Amino acid sequence: MKVHNFNAGPSVLPNEVLYKASKALIDFEGSGMSILEIGHRTSPFIAVMEEARSLVKELMQLEDDFEILYLQGGATMQFLQVPMNLLENGDTAAYVDTGVWSNKAIKEAKSFGFVDVIASSKESNYNHIPKQFNIPPQAKYLHITTNNTIYGTQWQMTPVTDVPLVADMSSDILSRSMDFNKFSLIYAGVQKNMGAAGATMVAVRKSMLGKITRKIPTIMDYKLHIENGSMLNTPPVFAVYISMLTLRWLKEQGGITAIEKINDKKAAMLYDEIDHNPLFRGTVAKEDRSKMNVCFIMDKPEMEEEFLKFCAKEDIVGIKGHRSVGGFRASLYNALPLESVEVMVEAMKYFSLKKA
Ligand code: PMP
């Protein structure tokens, strides 16, 4: 029996994926070997990598100019790999500061060029997405973090600009329909909506690359990863395999538009309870609420520990808020069943009645 897993990442995976992965751990497609025991340059594994890359492109409906890579180092490595590949010394990149993760991206970019932080919601502890900003036309790119995992805010609109857009989509990738072709580079750690920890997905337009004079170390060069079919060195085979299974699962569900309907329903149910239950209160501006990470607190913080214990008894796990916000954070990633949100809402109602 599984619990109701609201972890922020690594997080819940579809049962089918876990089942298939567990079989492949013992015997991969009847080969008599575990997926962990086959060479990455064998045709069965190359097929896994190619299917994963092409499913990303298909599910996101990306134009031909995009190349999909599975890399290592997490989204955290992308904070530096992006500017290292796109920014010439002396160039400017524009960043919007919407929290801890965008700050880390900003810090790394400063090693490669000028960083213009064009807007920030820091003064209100990142409880909203900045709406007013001017994008300098000379900027090489504009970087945004589409979903802010810690605070529970999410960009509802893609900024309109001629400047190439770069996005960290680690915590809302493949969860909602967007015109992904408006972006020039998208990256995401795969451990939330795309699989298990250990791989990072990068979707990059080839036309963005090869334009700078800096010497890029081999392992950091997107162009070389592309030329080598995302196998410049040994890829994280098991993480790529789980990601491929997760993408197959998403396709079977009907793709992004189908999962988005369920995600909308899950988020609406939980926010509705937060807004109507007198014990709880949301922490961010309503118009910027994330459908992936729902953050909320109690007016009586002394009750929070008791509520957490009550939830644990109901098999609800992973809802303790990040230390910088406090309270609770329920992550509603693609693989979290609607039923888990129903159980969570029931628990909130019951707890509130007991306290009335
Ligand atoms: N960006 C966002 C939005 C995240 O939520 C996270 C991790 N939670 C990261 C970046 C860092 O990802 P990683 O641990 O894969 O480096």
UniProtKB/TrEMBL annotation:
<keyword id="KW-0963">Cytoplasm</keyword>
<feature type="modified residue" description="N6-(pyridoxal phosphate)lysine">
    <location>
        <position position="192"/>
    </location>
</feature>
<keyword id="KW-0663">Pyridoxal phosphate</keyword>
<dbReference type="InterPro" id="IPR022278">
    <property type="entry name" value="Pser_aminoTfrase"/>
</dbReference>
<keyword id="KW-0032">Aminotransferase</keyword>
<comment type="pathway">
    <text>Amino-acid biosynthesis; L-serine biosynthesis; L-serine from 3-phospho-D-glycerate: step 2/3.</text>
</comment>
<protein>
    <recommendedName>
        <fullName>Phosphoserine aminotransferase</fullName>
        <ecNumber>2.6.1.52</ecNumber>
    </recommendedName>
</protein>
<dbReference type="GO" id="GO:0004648">
    <property type="term" value="F:O-phospho-L-serine:2-oxoglutarate aminotransferase activity"/>
</dbReference>
<keyword id="KW-0664">Pyridoxine biosynthesis</keyword>
<feature type="binding site">
    <location>
        <begin position="75"/>
        <end position="76"/>
    </location>
    <ligand>
        <name>pyridoxal 5'-phosphate</name>
    </ligand>
</feature>
<feature type="binding site">
    <location>
        <position position="191"/>
    </location>
    <ligand>
        <name>pyridoxal 5'-phosphate</name>
    </ligand>
</feature>
<feature type="binding site">
    <location>
        <position position="168"/>
    </location>
    <ligand>
        <name>pyridoxal 5'-phosphate</name>
    </ligand>
</feature>
<comment type="similarity">
    <text>Belongs to the class-V pyridoxal-phosphate-dependent aminotransferase family. SerC subfamily.</text>
</comment>
<keyword id="KW-0718">Serine biosynthesis</keyword>
<feature type="binding site">
    <location>
        <begin position="233"/>
        <end position="234"/>
    </location>
    <ligand>
        <name>pyridoxal 5'-phosphate</name>
    </ligand>
</feature>
<keyword id="KW-0028">Amino-acid biosynthesis</keyword>
<comment type="function">
    <text>Catalyzes the reversible conversion of 3-phosphohydroxypyruvate to phosphoserine and of 3-hydroxy-2-oxo-4-phosphonooxybutanoate to phosphohydroxythreonine.</text>
</comment>
<feature type="binding site">
    <location>
        <position position="149"/>
    </location>
    <ligand>
        <name>pyridoxal 5'-phosphate</name>
    </ligand>
</feature>
<dbReference type="Pfam" id="PF00266">
    <property type="entry name" value="Aminotran_5"/>
</dbReference>
<dbReference type="InterPro" id="IPR000192">
    <property type="entry name" value="Aminotrans_V_dom"/>
</dbReference>
<comment type="pathway">
    <text>Cofactor biosynthesis; pyridoxine 5'-phosphate biosynthesis; pyridoxine 5'-phosphate from D-erythrose 4-phosphate: step 3/5.</text>
</comment>
<dbReference type="InterPro" id="IPR015424">
    <property type="entry name" value="PyrdxlP-dep_Trfase"/>
</dbReference>
<feature type="domain" description="Aminotransferase class V">
    <location>
        <begin position="4"/>
        <end position="342"/>
    </location>
</feature>
<keyword id="KW-0808">Transferase</keyword>
<feature type="binding site">
    <location>
        <position position="101"/>
    </location>
    <ligand>
        <name>pyridoxal 5'-phosphate</name>
    </ligand>
</feature>
<dbReference type="InterPro" id="IPR015422">
    <property type="entry name" value="PyrdxlP-dep_Trfase_small"/>
</dbReference>
<comment type="subunit">
    <text>Homodimer.</text>
</comment>
<dbReference type="InterPro" id="IPR015421">
    <property type="entry name" value="PyrdxlP-dep_Trfase_major"/>
</dbReference>
<feature type="binding site">
    <location>
        <position position="41"/>
    </location>
    <ligand>
        <name>L-glutamate</name>
    </ligand>
</feature>
